[in-house]
Write a structure and sequence with these properties.
Shape: globular
CATH architecture of the largest domain: 3-Layer(bba) Sandwich
CATH class of the largest domain: Alpha Beta
Number of domains: 2
Strand order of the largest sheet: 5-2-1-8-7-6
Strand content: 15-25%
CATH superfamily of the largest domain: FAD/NAD(P)-binding domain
Number of helices: 6
Length: 301
Amino acid sequence: MRGSYDVIVCGGGPAGVGAAPAAAREGARTLLIEKYGMLGGVWTAGLLNPFFECVGRGWLVDELMRKLIEAGAFASWRKERYGDFVFDVESMRRVLEDLMRAADVELLYYTLVADAIVDDNRIRGVVIESKAGREAILARTVIDCTGDGDVFARAGCAYELGRASNGMVQPMTLMFEITGLPEGWEQKSSQELYDQMIAVIEQHRLGYRLPYPRCNYAPWVFNTPVSGTAVVQCTHAKADPLDPASLTRSTIDCRRQAYETVDIFRRIPGLEKVRLTHSATQIGVREARRLKGRYYLTPGT
């Protein structure tokens, strides 16, 4: 038995970094458990930019924006669009830890929530796995912010997965970072860049196949506040979010797509000095378990 808390928050992504200080600021002794050595989830481990529609959201979002601006780590993206901003990932990690420290949230990194402790139809705590082995932690309240619903699933709660008709889930994307963009370069549209990429593939007979059609959601190169650096959204994979073998195959495939994309970019005029710095620690999962609630929202007629 590792200990007991008023509140345990499982997962330190965007949901967890909101839930934990909310509890702690109300006076609850709060523990936040995170499997990586960082907070932020898809923002940091997943390299997910931009920070869409964040202006005027209040409370923690406003605090987060202010601290990132103070750190010189927040900038407008595509100035013709209101409310879309990009951030520096490393600064986001530090700022989130500062926020948790100020709220007296206790952090436990490198720890996986492996099971739920259920008694009398209530979740009383969680079982964790780490380098220290298997341990139990009790709490008056457990908040599932794992993104995949790991805690409520382990507790035996009913859930759904995928489309009702065939179980399909939304595709996944592995973001990656590039550097070497010329000063002042900014992508104008996904269609224009797509056409340039197709032309390069055909001209140089590269044999690559882009995993997405000509559309408005890919490819996108998001300039970050760090000069010459951007994160790219364009890899595409279909995988089972609950199957590690499927996630492994998709991650490897998306990493190959990232290398091919940079190889294409370097043959586009103006992008010759671009290079790949690193791909995200985790693949971007858009959809996994959905807890069966008491009510359903259905489309209007």
